[in-house]
Write a structure and sequence with these properties.
Elements: E1 2-7, H1 14-29, E2 36-45, E3 56-64, E4 70-76, H2 79-104
Parallel strand pairs: 1-2
Antiparallel strand pairs: 2-3, 3-4
Helix pairs in contact: 1-2
Length: 105
């Protein structure tokens, strides 16, 4: 499973953020990693310099073997919550999609 993290120019502490994102993805999506070829994460601060509710956005796109890519998005007050929320949504989506595929067999 290859993980690529993209950030906009307003995200500070890029190396720490990438390490955090990779750790969350590995721990929460590790069980389905055999079906996942690539994970792309896009982090964005919607309001840049201004403060506001839910201004951090995390979009995750997962490419599964032999399937179309799937994506989830979560917005929160901080990057950690945005990443965790998006990964949790992705885990639920993958469990549902891969469960359907197993049920058809």
């Amino acid at each position: 499973m290859h993980i690529q993290v993209n950030t906009d120019n307003t995200i500070a502490g890029r190396e720490d953020v990438i390490t955090f994102v990779e750790g969350v993805i590995t721990s929460k999506l590790g069980a389905v990693s055999g079906s996942v070829t690539r994970v792309e994460v896009h982090l964005q601060d919607q309001n840049a310099e201004k403060k506001g509710p839910d201004d951090k956005r995390c979009m995750i796109e997962v490419r599964l073997e032999g399937r179309q890519p799937v994506s989830t998005t979560h917005m929160a007050d901080n990057l950690q919550s945005a990443v965790t929320g998006a990964v949790d949504k992705m885990r639920n989506l993958l469990d549902r999609e891969l469960g359907k595929a197993r049920a058809r067999r």
